[in-house]
Q: What sequence folds into this?
């Protein structure tokens, strides 16, 4: 039985229903009224609803509010100024002010999908009472939005998250015993909500390294050591944990976008997969249109992004698309690594204006930037200056001139402060700057961090509480459908790859058909004829395998940057990606095998049935593709993939019995033939192809040939089963590889 939960928030007498109903109601005053009326009549009940400074959580399974018997008080736990939990009974507040109503259509409700962090929150320091009294600044903001539907607005108010860090260190042991090099040295800082925090500093100062550490994109490995105390809303977090990474939108310096998609498709794809599943297609479309317009991408919205092989957007347009892909999800915290590099001054200002709107909606924004123009510099609220891996300044932008002046380096009049900062950082030695009073120590007294996964209301990710942080996004089925559709579009748009894939195998099939013309009807009593017949069959089966497995081997290494970006930013699961790729491969392989088989079968004049020939070729192609995918998932570099290609086929051919009969292979290595699909595929095909070889001499030769490859007519079923088993084993291996690799992108 499915419960339907609905959350309704009243803001200055207006109701904002949450979930599926919202888009219908937000602009309909009649329906708003209905909500108002029904809420007045409604009997409230609940288990506990807990809030911290910026979130509200349904604590236990939700009890129907419609049923009079379940009239329990609502308890709100909020934090006071000392960080202690204060309990407030909300029964009256809810009934009188209509701040929120949670309803369920039956009493055993446990489902809480429709709740969203975006829909209930308190500003920092606000309590439920502020909401009740209408003092919430968030409520004022919602009021300002007027009739604009919140779901269609990429700048809709949101709770936002604060990021705070201290003692961030990154060191690199030098090769040749040169000691340790400090890349980040006791770096500290914070990203307040509702402000743009900029990290500035000369090239090599450690800006990207710091961003990568904070956004969980850097890990200690070998000579690289990293330590950091990072807090998200004062929860001590491991930024590398997948759960945390998914809470932080991240725009890397290098754009990794699907080359054959358009900006409109990329932004809509991100929105569809990452926004709550209740968001309608119309909302997605409106959000996408608005994002494109805000980022100045309207004109090129339907141009392919492009990549190494395909010409498409300019570098600046690509960068803005990357930003749009993240911002459309209305993130609470955004990290961007040099988002303005490559942009002209107008586009850079336009981008910063968009980021400003994101902060006004409640988010924190952290970005690194090289040398901003003065108007961009002034749009920042908070500034961190890094120099040689240390914090040279940390504080508000407004305070920069005073800070520098007090330390003997006043910014000359009519001089861009950003240029002055860079000038000082580059021209004056660190020792002198230190003496002058730059490089302040972290003197903040940090609150005791809350613990993750601890019992009680302090947990971020307790089983039932995750709803407050991320309401349910696209289902697995939607993820697979969207990925499949994107891959099909990719295949149709990437005409060169498609033409190559189909064209080369057609050419090879024709060539092979011409060389082995009518070889199936050669006299088996003649050894040369039998050898040609055998060779033709082996090579035609191998051709089906190569034609499909080679693109699969390279597919993952080539798509890896896009996959890791999308996976790490919560677009889809590994399983959904894997399944969608499998479906595409299965379809394309079927088409390709049918084409190759039709040509080689009739040109070579084989004796086995066309059905068996096609099915054997398909089974071989699919299991070899599975092996290729496993190889492809294990490697990162496409060049390595190219070099590994012979490894996929040469051993299979060597063990097939074509060049040397298995009994002549030394026994200590012979066992390997049983792990290759070609062994079983060939045995199945040979048993049917050489079943009737005409004259007694021909039959004797065929029997010898079949015995030489150890094929047994009574074992055909087993060969099929083994082919399927190998296919499954290789696929599972590939999935395991992909899972392992998915989290390692640094
Ligand atoms: N994984 C790593 N291994 C070795 N050295 C590293 C690594 N990561 C960063 N570094 C070094 O740390 C220093 C800071 O690099 P980082 O990319 O963070 O600087 P940056 O301030 O972002 O520079 P830019 O503005 O030029 O992008 C550089 O000297 C770089 O070579």
A:
């Amino acid at each position: 039985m499915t419960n339907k939960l609905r959350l309704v928030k009243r803001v200055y007498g207006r109701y904002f229903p949450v979930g599926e109903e919202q888009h219908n109601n937000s602009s309909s005053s009649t329906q708003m009224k209905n909500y108002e009326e029904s809420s007045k009549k409604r009997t409230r009940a609940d288990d506990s609803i807990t809030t911290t400074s910026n979130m509200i959580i349904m604590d236990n399974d939700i009890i129907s509010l419609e049923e009079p018997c379940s009239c329990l008080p609502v308890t709100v736990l909020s934090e006071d100024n000392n960080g202690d939990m204060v309990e407030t009974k909300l029964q009256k507040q809810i009934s009188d002010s209509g701040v929120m109503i949670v309803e369920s259509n039956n009493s055993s409700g446990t489902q809480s999908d429709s709740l969203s962090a975006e829909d209930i929150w308190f500003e920092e320091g606000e309590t439920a009472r502020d909401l009740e009294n209408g003092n919430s600044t968030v409520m004022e903001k919602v009021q300002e939005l007027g009739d604009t539907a919140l779901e269609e607005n990429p700048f809709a108010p949101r709770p936002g998250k604060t990021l705070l860090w201290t003692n961030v260190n990154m060191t690199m042991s030098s090769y040749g015993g040169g000691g340790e090099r400090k890349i980040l040295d006791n770096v500290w800082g914070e990203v307040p909500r509702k402000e743009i925090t900029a990290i500035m500093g000369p090239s090599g100062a450690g800006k990207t390294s710091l961003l990568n550490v904070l956004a969980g994109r850097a890990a200690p490995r070998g000579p690289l050591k990293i330590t950091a105390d990072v807090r998200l809303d004062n929860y001590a977090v491991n930024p590398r944990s997948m759960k945390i990474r998914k809470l932080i939108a991240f725009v890397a310096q290098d754009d990794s976008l699907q080359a054959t998609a358009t900006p409109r498709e990329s932004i809509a794809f991100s929105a569809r997969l990452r926004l709550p599943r209740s968001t309608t297609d119309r909302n997605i479309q409106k959000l996408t249109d608005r994002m494109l317009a805000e980022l100045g991408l309207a004109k090129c919205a339907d141009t392919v992004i492009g990549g190494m092989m395909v010409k498409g957007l300019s570098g600046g347009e690509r960068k803005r698309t990357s930003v749009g892909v993240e911002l459309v999800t209305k993130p609470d915290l955004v990290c961007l690594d040099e988002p303005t590099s490559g942009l002209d001054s107008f586009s850079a200002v336009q981008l910063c204006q968009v980021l400003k709107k994101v902060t006004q909606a409640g988010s924190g924004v952290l970005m690194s930037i090289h040398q901003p123009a003065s108007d961009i510099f002034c749009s920042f609220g908070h500034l961190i200056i890094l120099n040689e891996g240390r914090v040279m300044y940390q504080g508000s932008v407004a305070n920069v001139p005073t800070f520098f002046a007090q330390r003997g380096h006043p910014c000359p009049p009519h001089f861009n402060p950003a240029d002055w900062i860079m000038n000082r950082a580059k021209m004056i030695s660190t020792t002198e700057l230190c003496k002058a009073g730059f490089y302040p120590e972290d003197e903040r007294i940090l609150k005791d961090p809350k613990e993750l996964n601890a019992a009680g209301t302090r947990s971020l990710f307790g089983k039932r509480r995750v709803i407050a942080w991320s309401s349910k996004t696209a289902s697995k089925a939607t993820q697979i459908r969207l990925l499949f559709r994107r891959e099909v579009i990719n295949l149709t748009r990437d005409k060169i790859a498609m033409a190559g894939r189909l064209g080369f195998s057609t050419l090879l099939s024709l060539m092979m058909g011409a060389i082995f013309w009518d070889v199936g009807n050669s006299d088996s009593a003649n050894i040369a004829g039998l050898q040609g017949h055998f060779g033709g069959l082996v090579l035609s089966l191998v051709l089906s395998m190569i034609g499909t497995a080679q693109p699969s081997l390279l597919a993952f290494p080539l798509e890896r940057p896009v996959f890791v970006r999308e996976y790490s930013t919560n677009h889809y699961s590994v399983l959904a990606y894997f399944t969608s790729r499998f479906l595409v491969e299965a379809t394309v392989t079927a088409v390709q095998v049918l084409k190759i088989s039709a040509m080689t079968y009739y040109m070579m004049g084989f004796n086995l049935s066309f059905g068996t020939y096609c099915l054997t070729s398909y089974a071989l192609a699919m299991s070899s593709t599975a092996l290729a995918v496993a190889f492809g998932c294990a490697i990162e570099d496409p060049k390595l993939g190219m070099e590994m290609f012979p490894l996929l086929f040469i051993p299979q051919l060597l063990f097939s019995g074509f060049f040397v009969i298995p009994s002549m292979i030394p026994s200590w290595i012979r066992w390997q033939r049983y792990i290759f699909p070609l062994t079983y595929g060939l045995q199945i095909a040979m048993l049917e192809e050489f079943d009737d070889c005409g004259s007694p001499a021909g039959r004797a030769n065929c029997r010898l040939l079949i015995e030489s490859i150890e094929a047994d007519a009574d074992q055909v079923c087993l060969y099929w089963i083994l082919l399927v088993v190998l296919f499954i084993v290789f696929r599972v291996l590939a999935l395991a590889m992909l899972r392992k690799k998915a989290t390692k992108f640094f």
